[in-house]
## 1
Amino acid sequence: MISREQFITVLKNGKVLAYKCKKCGNLQLATTIYCNKCNSQDLESVEVEGKGKVVTYTIQNVAPEEYEKYKPYAWAVVRLDAGFNISGFLPGIDSPKNLPINTRVKIVGYDERGIVLSLDK
Amino acid sequence: MGAGSTKYGKLKESVVELAVNAARDAIKSAKLEPKDVQYGFISNVFGIADNQVHLAPVIMSNLGIPHVPGLTIESACGSGSIAFREAYANVAAGFYDAVLAVGVEKVTHTGTGRSTTLFSYCSDFLYEGGSGASFPGLFASIARAYLTRYKATEEDLAMVAVKNHEHGILNPKAHVQKRITVDDVIKSPVVASPLKFLDCCPFSDGASAVILCSEEFAKKRAADYIEVIGSGRGASPAAVQGREDPTTIPSTRAAAQQAYKQANLTPKDIDFAEVHDCFTIAEMIDMEDLGFFEKGMAAMAVREGLTRLNQGEVTINPSGGLKSKGHPIGATGIGQVVETYEQLLGRAGQRQVKDAEIGMTHNFGATGASCAVHIFRRV
């Protein structure tokens, strides 16, 4: 089984550890350990590109206290090109004008801010 | 068969005092003595912020019934309704004749920054709180998806706040008793776009308590009581990213479906509903998921004032809701039942829903990861 540590190591390389279901072909985040479509336990781990587009997001004007120093930033839900969602911290966004829905983004790391995204130009 | 609540707001009492005060009022209103209580279901999330976990035995000891067992239940902002559901299930199963359900929260002393962080622990932390999202932020992302997809505006969201404040003014125990306008909401500081300060419920302290008992016990003791006729539970993927459609909350739909089925009722039969409006967008989505309006039509309903007190088919949040009455998160779900008790017994004063016969409570944890819905009838 994939540990949280392994999952984070892969995020640091801009990729996402996923499980592919050998029974139904579903791809999902490797933090869920049985297939979330058919519930099969027969899964293989694969690395997918941390690239995709913004499904929805917010800009945090009031942030949890540990994040106050990083403002302005957005938190976004991202549809990866691999076909499932992830979320993360997107620095430097101060207005909805700068982040239309469907904007291309990519994972660039994992640090004290969590899963870190950037615009994928 | 009995209900009590402290005022909601920034309170000086400890988490234990708040719980004990609400429990005392509930026991008194049921015309019982503490020793009649056979079990205590306590809902709380952040007791640790007031240096007290393992709340159940401390509360029971302070009620002078240290030998009566209890259980503390944590399901984020949905703790209260979920504790109520467990209490209901235990009485329905015949384990106990009369039990106490008390919800309590004490957080305002920690300040806004710390509270924002504490609440973020209720999310799926790796992906949400631990990547910079606050709770207003998570609901803001839901709001952005909703406003993008449906014919709804930030002004429509503001109307929810205006309506709930109108109701809250009539509730002496409400945290925020202040009339506001759509303009006030729109011009209030942005917390997490598109949600502004006045789209958000306050951080509150407070406690609410009810006594649940078997019908036989209620009849024997001849106290005033209302009847639980439907109870449902639902669950959703813990993170917003796990939802196929972020503009609907699957746990609400599942819990409501079970409760309607058990009660043999439809949304048209509900006279009023206390729903989970932690943010204005939440009330819009709740109204659709509970079946009061078609998907995407809640904005129209709010715009036309259909959910205001005694203005339409169903009054939504006669108490003022989380938005105005306040949201002491462990207490909220039980507080909704207290409001329903008062409404169905005709004791709600100026905010009384006319001829109220059937009431509903809807309360969820986090962004709807866990939910319970109950339906009540006047006896």
## 2
Amino acid sequence: MGGTFNAVALVPLTLWFVASIIAHAGSDYATFITWLQAPLTTLLMILLLIALFHHSALGLRVVIEDYVHSGFKFAAVIAVRLGCYGLAVAGIIATLRVAFGG
Amino acid sequence: MNPNSAPQSRPLSPNIQIYRPQLTSVLSIANRITGVVLSLGAVGLVVWLSAAAAGPKPYAAVQGVIGSSLGQIMLFECSFAFFLHLCGGIRHLVWDTVHGFTLRSIYISGWAVVATSIALTVAAWVASLFVGGR
């Protein structure tokens, strides 16, 4: 399901994200935006969003399949997957807006 | 399924009502619970990024919520959930290489997950207090 590579990629990506958040504790808006606009940051943030929501979709699917056995299961899996990918796209759009913004 | 059998609920063998929690089973369900918690946290991540993209006022509003007492508690819980899920996930990835299946290894790695998660959570918050200068 492509889950292993995705999971392995998430280790450095999430650690980078957490370290960045810690490093920016207490920063003002301008500092934060400047960081987010940096090309490397934009790239890593987009990769993080894709990997994170793909991982989430896979995991939530397993959880749903374990606990939902009615006909609702199929709809639930689809809805969760759509939600995850929709959120990923929303996050990517926000990141790009900052990257290309003034 | 036998079409002649009546649709009745049959007794299931007891599991969580009977078995004492073990490190193995507790960490297993913890990985699942933290995964679900983090999926909710991921929604927060997108809200936060969208606020940043929207401008300084929306960003300040979201930061205000995060900075509130309730927000900080939830952030702390999410951070612990993250480190627990990260360490538990790495433990799973190691198992995927077909290593560490002896009972001794499982208990050593299990306690390592618990200890590392707590240590990383504490370290992260101490570091952010240092950086934030609060």
## 3
Amino acid sequence: MSMLPLLLDRVCFAVNGKTIIDNISAEIADGPRTVILGPNGAGKSVLMRLCHGLFAPTSGSISWRGTNGGRRRHAMVFQRPVMLRRSALANVAYALKLAGVSPRERVLRARDVLEAVGLASVAERPARVLSGGEQQKLALARAWALGPEVLFLDEPTANLDPGATREVESLIGQIRAGGTKIVMTTHNLGQAKRLGDEILFLNQGRLVERTPVDQFFIKPASAEADAFIRGELLWN
Amino acid sequence: MNEIWVALSEAGRLIGGLDVKLTEIVFLSLRVSLTAVLVASALGLPLGAAIAVGRFPGRQALIVTLNALMGLPPVVVGLLVYLMLSRAGPLGQFGILFTPAAMVVAQTILILPIVAALSRQVIEDAWQEYREQLRSLGAGPLTSAVTLLWDTRFSLVTIVLAGFGRAAAEVGAVMIVGGNIDGVTRVMTTAIALETSKGDLPLALGLGIILITLVLALNAAAYWVKEAAQRRYG
């Protein structure tokens, strides 16, 4: 019983008359890891927030076409994780509390997930004094603990050094191996290659092309993607 | 100059000897102002959080009003509470005018806007940062407000202490609604005003020293709490 596919039907989003998402239609299905790729300002993060339900489309519709088990079964990790002023463990437990998990089970599940992401040793430490990499892993753990069917990741390694990036990427692989559908944005070609199965290429709010990852990097369908890959400036 | 030294040494003796009259006044001051700050915080902190997180018509007007009320002149608050509580007033039947209860009411009204307006500011700043994360986790407005109150607790301590400082140091409101009755409603500030005009400088000075020490200690505590928390929790 999957809530997927996610159907975007002629989705537009504008703020103060400025179009940010321009008529995007797509179906995001269970299975492949979906990477939303594009230059800064292409609308990647906004598209993801629309999918996650943080914004409502100005026009068009976004709908989960599968069987929805009542509760929202998708979670999101932000580029800059927001940690509450409490311990790492309590941050995970807080998310579980909002998801309606009983107090006893909250702590057990929080400990399990911290163990799984390698943060068991800092479980009792205040979350805000952890390093950037640890905080991002904690953000992933917090989202993962909810047992989401779909996990949205917005530039999950944009602020991290290479070592932390490697750890976060391997953690994403672990979450994916557990059966969670991954949808992530990035502007990093290497990361798209490593973590993606299919690429949704966005530019100036439009979905320019959608291509399997191996094909995308060898022979993209659009001139814009080709130019982006070759490192050309896209915004006029 | 000599007179001041005599008064100062006499004040020191009163404090050192835990003079009965002096301690009585100090304790009444603390009792009244602590109760007021407790009530004002119980009302003002949730109010501040609600205004920070909520979106409703008249919100901006309410914020402006609260900010303006932070500067309420104590004598005016005293006058208004006096009118409400006096025998002919709408709340006259309770007969609490010229009692510590009336002083608590007046000081609560005086510092409620301070607690509410400053906490609204602090919580709204945090809300900007937390908003998407909390919504993503499924927190509604009420849960968000409670979460933000807890997460900004160290800044809120400073605000509550500022409110207490204001209450303990004001003289106008308690003078009018308390009446400065010896042994009943005489607090530090009203006693200082009275003793000074009577020329009993040692008692006035002694109380002044205690009041300043108290305010200083409070500010030191507020600073220390915030610093320690920042280091510990980030």
## 4
Amino acid sequence: MPAYVLEIVTLSLGLLLLLAEAFIGPTKKRLIGYAAIVGLTITFGLLPFVCNCEGTTPFWSFYTADSLALFYKGIALLTTIIVLILSLDYAPVLERFVARAGGGPAIGEFFALPVFICTGMMWMASAKDLTSIFVSLELITIAFYVMVAYQRKNKLSLEAGTKYLVLGALSTGFLIYGIAWLFGVTGQTNLVAIKEALQVTEHKTAALFALSLILVGLSFKVAAVPFQFWVPDVYQGAASPVTAYLSVGSKSAGFIIGYRLLEPFLASANLQHTTVSLLVAIAGATLLVGNMAAIPQTNFKRLLAYSSISHAGFLLLALGSLPHNSQLSPIQVVSFYLATYLIMTLLAFAVLGVIARVKGSDDLSAFDGLSQRSPFLAFAMLISAISLAGVPLTAGFLGKFFVFTLAVDSGHTWPVVIAVIGAVAGFYYYFKIIRSMYWNVTTDTTPITLEPLTKATIVALMVAAIVFGVCPQVIMSLLK
Amino acid sequence: MPSEIYLELSTTDPPFPLSPLDLLIFLPILAALGIAFGAPARVTAIAAAAANLAIVIALWVGFKGGSDFQYTASRLVLDSPRIAYAVGLDGLSLILVLLSALVTFCAVWIKAPDSVSAKLWFISCLLISAGAMGAFVTTDLFFIYAFHELALIPTFLMIGLYGHGGREIRLHAAWKITIYLGLGSLILLAGLVWLVLKASPAGALTFDVASLKAGALLLDAATQKSIFLTLFIGFGVLISLFPFHSWAAPAYAAAPTPIAMLHAGVLKKFGLYGLLRIAIPLLPLGASACQNIMLWLLLGNIILIGLVTISQKSLDQVLGHSSVMHMGYVFLGLAAGNEIGYAGAVLLMFAHGVSIALLFALSGDVRRLTGSVEMSRLGGLAKRAPLLGLLFGMAAMASLGLPGFANFAAEVMVFFSGFQDSHGLIGPVQLTTIFALWGVVISAVYMLRAYRKVFLGPPGELPAADPAPLTLSQKFPLFLLVAALLVVGFYPNLLLNLVKPVLHLFASH
């Protein structure tokens, strides 16, 4: 079965859901969410049967089905499924903010749009031509504009939506300008052809200018310094499941096209050195800003926003590595890191979603005394926090560990020093969450009840965070 | 022919080989899980710790001597780079495993106060113990490192939640130990990664200590020195080496009794174990190049911290600082770089682990019986609680190295090692040893001073009434620890014979 079947199935699913939305009663909109979850789970089940082979028709110059593409398709599907589960759990809050006079709250599209974003991310994982990269990126971004601003009666959400729209459009502008320059330098849009052209190009300066513009565009997408300032506001304003989706989905999509776009530069003997220096400089700055700014945060979503920035720093450091003798390749490490990041971040957002629904707040103080109210949720959050902080025997540690290995092997001494300082700062701000949950007391000790589906998701993510921390082989063998 | 075939079949490894050492790690973890799901907390914890102690003794009886790892089993978790969950026991790790099992057993025997959640209390103790066991029995750098960090979170939670002193004091102590140990571990991690990248055989990164050794020994002196220094600082932070020591005393003073026993007694030995297992045998040139740095820093531990200890006003602070100070002697044994020094260091690790756990247990009793450990408020306790006075006296004497206790044998070996290779000359090692000898006087001053203030003299403001005598159950762990100190003190070869073959191997470099 060729790989593009997955995109066709997902896209058809999204269209069907939108169509069905018109015929479903206002109180039953959540059915769309369940249908989307079932549909995407079936698509995920198709993944092992997909052939990672390519045809010879012109279509295949836009589209690749290498094992990396399949891996990221899997990440896109899993993220979307979990985000939809979180959205269902979050629906009561959502309904409050989208209520309209007469008729029920319009939350049907909220469950259909992620399916389109998922299609975009899956397509992007396979894109190997500047045009297909750009089109798939826009499919994701435009759907996200709607998602971020969805709670139209919530001022914070509208603010976030506006910021995301303006800055997203700006970054797209930079990216397309960079793509234009790259086309100008090489005369090609296919990345394989561009790779060959860059090996021998005489226009080094123009190529580097294209690279800088592309890096600006990408930095916006993956939340890297100095284009990270939209992240905390947008994360705080958007609904929790959307924030989770942005944080995981948007970042992994950004890194896969980042890899595809940068690979030709990294492979060219002329441009390699400058590209690495640029990436490492951005990585160092991102690590520093993300970790230092996270320290004083008191809002959980802003904390996770800065944490997401700092993780982007680690990922960029891996991407900018040229290892001498380790058998780890940068993209292998980036992909592993993103897979573990998916697990621990979605776990954090799953718990946050429940807390935000129960407490009506996403401040750190909403977690006070959680260990008394719900030992289960507190333990889940503990696992997520220590994994994000990079405590060994959790998945998060292995990701950081591989990045350290790559960076030390590439001789990036200073970035490693910054990364160590950043990781220590991480101990502080992630442990602040643990402190709230276990040390602080709360007067409200009514137990928190959980939907079975949410509980099962949280258990699965917890188990995954520990299992992949001890047996990374499962993920690594997918990346050979 | 058929018998040969049978032999071949039986020697092929099963797909997932098991070792009794796995039990040492997983029994506490399973017990912790059981407690989380509602098993009676203290009984389960004691049962798991007792089972572990019994297993360790059985392993000791079955231990065949020599320098090879025994009870080995290796399970690959990642093929490239090669990381394996591999376990094995040699004389060095046997001694530390014995220490862990003994101290864990005594720590969980102590009843949790009524005001705390017994669940969280005993789960934390068991997880710390599992982390220590894991660090001592695994033979793969990755897991040695990973298991040690397992203890970080329970320690952080317990000090912050149930620590002594005001809320501000214990929160401060909890943050300090977490950030310091986090930083130390990350520096250590950088050093270990560096070592793996430099010393692995070409094209096959491995974290197996034994496979790294051949490559590491071939490294030139400059590389060895840089890697050794990184590892040394990383491990040094974990051991509370001067000037990275300031987390230790406040944390131990604030920690609940069993956590202080486990951390000061067992977990802190991990850094020393790491130096003996990884840094010194793999990077001998680096170790000798860094000898002078080690000597200076250890004098900081012995003399400076020793003097600081004298001025402390509470019993817990005296004990916390004294534990930092005594690390200096272990370093002296390591810095001397000969077999006697290493052996003395290993023996001192065991002796100090037992004696400091005993002292913290006793100071916990003093706090429970009188409500305070402020020395100015206490006095004449020996008359009112004679057994406590006697036991504390023995522990204090052990800690300052009175003959008959294990600490004496160990410290004497360390001091001898300073002059082992002197050939009649006074070099840096000999000078340091001479200064370090004064540390014995310093520790006599602070220990005897503390003993006089708390146990002798006129009755202090506390306790208001005669405390209840210790029950049999409360005495039991104390007797066990004293017995361990005396047995090893009278017959140190019990442990030394185990470790000599291992140390002989790398002292010859």
